[in-house]
Amino acid sequence: MTVLWIVLAVIVLLLVACVRVVTQYERGVLFRLGRMKAVREPGLRLIIPLVDVLRKVSLRIVTRPIQSQGIITKDNVSVDISAVAYYQIVDAAKSVLAIENVAAAIDQIAQTTLRGVVGRHTLDETLSETEVINANIREILDQTTTEWGVLVTLVQLKDIQLPDTMKRAMARQAEAEREKRAKIIAAEGEAMAAASLGQASDTMMAHPLALQLRNLQTLVEIGVDKNSTVVFPAPLMSTIGELGTFLTRESAAAAEHPPVPPVPATDGREAAANGQPVAASN
Questions:
Q1: Among residues 29, 118, 149, 197, which one has the fewest Cβ atoms lying within 10 Å of its Cβ?
Q2: TM segments (predicted)?
Q3: Angle, to 10 degrees, between the axis of helix 208-224 and the axis of helix 164-206?
Q4: What are the strands, taking DSSP E only, across 23-109?
Q5: pTM of this prediction?
Q6: SS (H, E, C) 174-223
Q7: Residues β-bridged to residue 80
Q8: CA-CA distances (angstroms) from residue 120 to 71, 75, 123?
Q9: For 107-158, what is each residue's pLDDT tens digit?
Q10: What's the pLDDT tens digit per position in 190-231?
Q11: DSSP 98
Q12: CA–CA separation, 242 vs 107, rounded Å?
């Protein structure tokens, strides 16, 4: 009876050692006596104990953060940039045979590629053309990782840290840019307002009653405030013209009739000496 139990235990151990389960998102790379035999698909797989070795490789997309590192841009500005890379193993056999540690290799090659690509761009290009930089990094990584059976699906710049002095300079630049746009918009508004006023004046010159209607509308607007101001509208240009005519007429009259200077008072002796009559006094 004891022997039977021992035989059953050995059989169970052999079955456990022979059976492997490959999940749906994995592939099994089978080595027999150190040589790759085949790639096993998902499901229940049997191997020969002590002869076969089955290495499971995940085919799911892996997220690999690229740690922040100091990079000098093309215009000699030091920035700290971190990124994230997404890759997927598409050839299980190559990922096992061609490279020892896929994750560590992707991490190192991504850091060096990020430094090289950003170093070829200026700071403004790095901040504004992130999509181009991401595409360049991904293309370079694909050329290297294809031999490893790895496909880099996406690379994104995650964070860009600028020096404090550069932040202040960029803030001043942005403020100056906003002031420039504000002045341009104000100037355009003044030009449009002047054009509209010119059109309105032309309309009023063609229709004199329009000015009177505008004056009446102004009276209505003033009356809403319930103040004690009384306004009597009058055509401004005609009033100025009448005032000019009045001043011209007064000037002409003053020129035609100059004022007679007054005669100073003198005594009788001076008048007699000058041959002027002297009035008698009582």
A1: 197
A2: none
A3: 120
A4: 26-32, 35-40, 43-46, 52-58, 62-72, 78-89
A5: 0.57
A6: HHHHHHHHHHHHHHHHHHHHHHHHHHHHHHHHHCHHHHHHHHHHHHHHHH
A7: 70, 161
A8: 11, 9, 10
A9: 889 889 998 898 888 888 888 888 899 999 999 988 888 889 999 988 988 8
A10: 999 888 888 887 877 777 767 667 776 776 776 666 665 555
A11: T
A12: 91
Is 64:138 a contact under the CB 8 Å cutoff? no
Other beta carbons within 10 angstroms of residue 226's beta carbon come to 6
The dihedral through the CA atoms of 99, 104, 110, 112 has a sign that is negative
Can you read off the two tokens belonging to residue 72?
A: 């000098």
3-state secondary structure of 71: strand
For the record, the structure tokens of 29 come out as 């790379």
Long-range contacts of 263-270 (CB under 8 A, 24+ apart): none
39 burial via Cβ count (<10 Å: 0-12, 13-18, 19+): middle
Residue (of 97, 100, 95) closest to 31 by Cα position: 97
